[in-house]
Amino acid sequence: MQTLEERKLLEAEFHDKLRDPNLVNDPELHAKLTSNKKWYHIARQSKQFAENYLRQHSPKARALDFACGDGYYSLLMAEFGADVDGIDISDISVRHAASAASTRGLPARFQVMDCENMTFADNTFDLINVNGVLHHLDLNRAYPELARVLKPTGSIICVEALKHNPVFQSYRRLTPQLRTAFETEHILRRKDVLMARRYFSRIDWKFFHLASLAAVPFRKSPLFEPLLSVLETLDSTLLRVPMLRWWAWQVGFILSQPEKGQPPA
Ligand SMILES: C[S@@+](CC[C@H](N)C(=O)[O-])C[C@H]1O[C@@H](n2cnc3c(N)ncnc32)[C@H](O)[C@@H]1O
Fold it and tell me: What is the pTM of this model?
């Protein structure tokens, strides 16, 4: 791999620390670095959206998990019948993912690689998973790389956080220990999602989690499940409103029909 820019070294260092097996031996630091896990209790609909898509498109696919982390989605795609490559800039993450795949005998290979500068040949993949990744990257490099390695008939599923809700963005700024500084400032805006249109002729999206975040304080209560279901129903109405939906926590979008020539200026 080429010498990495400073921000990528910081990303690798941060994610190595987060996934270091010894982190649990320092309960204070562990709690400090993982306190945002509570929000994911309400994220079942976006998770289902990703998993349903991968279940449907994995059989016989050559698949890429783009910034795979510990390989959760890589192994899922392999279980669903894909032949998987997973890449990440964090060495510890790649080692964890490779070891989990080998223990479970799944067809998945992992390597340390920069998502902005991949060594895969053009038109390699039928399916690419991008989950919680784009705000770590320079989109001017990431989108064209994704379009380059995707086969013309392939598709990419992205599930990413959004920046427009001032409450969520204030929380991010108030909890700098939970992410790199680059990440905080590069959470996706509407224009960052729409920028994908330069590289893909088709984009389909769905928005997740606005009112449903109010269920988080009740996550340990017996009321949690019924409350979350009511708030998810409310979200399904709220997130149909064009301006309101960009205040959601997450967006899922499918990119297909990659532009293989020069993108329009
Ligand atoms: C929030 S984690 C998401 C991991 C995984 N997609 C998942 O769903 O569990 C973001 C990942 O991006 C990786 N990353 C950041 N910058 C990268 C880069 N330039 N190339 C490859 N991976 C990168 C980090 O190491 C980290 O594992």
Answer: 0.94
